[in-house]
Amino acid sequence: MFQVGHERSPLPPTGPDAAAPSTPSAPSASKASRPGPGGGAGGAKQRDAFFDNAKFLAIALVVVGHAWRPVIDDSRAVLAAYNFVYAFHMPAFIVVSGYFSRGFDMRPSRVRRLVTGVLVPYLIFETAYSLFRKAADSPEHPISLLDPWYLTWFLIALFVWRLTTPVWKALRRPLPVALGIALLASVSPDIGNDLDLQRVLQLLPFFVLGLCLRPEHFERVRRREVRLLSVPVAAAALVFAYWSGPRMNFEWFYHNSSGQELGVPWWIGIAMKLAMFACSLVLTVCFLVWVPRRHMWFTALGAGTLYAYLLHGFLVQASRIFGWYDAFPWITTPAGIVVLTIGAAALAALLCTSPVRRTFRFAMEPRMDWLFKRDAAEAARQRSAAPAESAESADSSGTAVSSGTAVSSGTARAAGTSGSR
């Protein structure tokens, strides 16, 4: 499935700096000027290649799945692949998001990052998507910040999930509680569409699962026997998806409707949700065990997955509104499906690149210093770190100080004591 390298990158620590997966960590005051392991400057904490690879591959599957949607009625094989991918691609993405939210607390710096990195992009893109739809084909479409349209549900869900992180960290058994809430939501058709709460609650267990994971869990699932077992398991799931495609309502994979709304009794809805949770969990493991652990050509793109997620939706919606698929009937042929899949994956990669991120950073990562009060505790920490950082920079620049006399280039020797480090 994916080529796996022999060199393993270390998994990230469980400290608070692991709370945001989509942006590089801030430079460390004590290590900012020290050379990294590769000989270069280690100006920032090293990102973990495994998680960047996982995020990019997951977002590529999201884009490919959306590209397949208009042609699933024309090909049973595409329908099977669509159901197979939808069974785990968002759960995998959410599990990783939960894992990187373990350090979230209510400190002002964390809240500020949550507002500028999640809530503000939600407000901007929910408005932009609504205006796009009004201009394209639905002049009556309302602009409602309480009713997420299309892709923006994930941002508001992530905002709610992360805000509740301290609650889940305080519980003795958070995962069973989250699963119970998800099952109750699946039999509650009166929840309504506000904030897409049905989907927020039904997918909550995957986020809480990510909060519960530790680096050693990822080590365990990447054992050789697990990797080998994942191949027949994934193959069996794909065969089952092919068999069940015409027999099953694929809207179960969207997690935005109760069982009653999908035409089944409440108890069948609960059984389906339990089965789908187990299936998604197993396939997420199968996906993660084959994610490369070493640096790949697409590793750096993992830092821009939210850009690809939000931006590709405009092209997907435009293709449906303006009938791009109808203009190319060959797209439903096997060769056309291959071209469509490769094109969608390439689009995902393009939207994760640095030029795209620089262009849209004003909407995705706004600074908004004017909105927030200055955090006195954070400012004090920065002031206390400044002298140490200055001393470290001066020391690493090759200037040695001995007995009050500065000797440059690290070549001085005093009284038989070497001045080099």
UniProtKB/TrEMBL annotation:
Transmembrane domains' residue ranges: 54-72, 84-102, 114-132, 144-163, 226-244, 264-290, 297-315, 327-352
Domain of life assignment: Bacteria
One Pfam short name: Acyl_transf_3
Region (Disordered): 1-44, 383-421
Keyword set, alphabetical order: Membrane, Transmembrane, Transmembrane helix
PANTHER family: MEMBRANE-BOUND ACYLTRANSFERASE YKRP-RELATED (PTHR37312:SF1)
Protein name according to UniProt: Fucose 4-O-acetylase
Source organism: Streptomyces pini
